[in-house]
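FIELD: query
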Amino acid sequence: MNVKQEHLKETNPEHEILDILKNRWSPRAFSDKKITEKEVKILLEAGRWAPSAFNVQPWRIIWGIKGTETYDRLYNCLDEFNQSWADNAQVLMAGAFKKTKEGDKENFHALHDLGLFMANVYTQAHSMGIATHQMAGIDFKKAQKEFKIPEDFHVATGIALGYYGGDASVLPEDLQEKENKQKRERKPQSEFAFNGNFQNKN
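FIELD: result
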């Protein structure tokens, strides 16, 4: 793993898990170290081998490296909040999925499969010292029009990527506290995993 200890957060899992899963987190401030096209292709290759229902691989990814027209077009599709910090990312992506499968039947699993694709990307990225931050705040209709994406696809997320080690002071003041928070937290398993009937624990 190529992430320096000082760039990691305090994470306390209930059970021992792989370091690459334990140590991954989603910063908003990234190093100014450039990400190359070859590195992007490695990340996409990791995603390519994710599982999908019926192996239809419904994911579609638009990507752009900082300094290119595609990067700027992706940035312009983000909402105002995400634009306030995402311009320090070295790569921007949009993740979309095909809503139907063979015979125009609705693919209820496509969004899940896009998530699996991105989980592979995240894991590969972290192993390379690259951080990732997914964003719900992307104008999917604007992105669909901007990139000429057919109506049979839905743009689900934006993704910002850059090397760990960014300076939080480049962020808007209200985000600096979140960035500098050292302890990561998650709901305990007892709130979401049930060996028996479902329990409504919000």
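FIELD: remark
The helical segments are 19-22, 37-48, 69-75, 80-86, 110-127, 140-146, 173-180.
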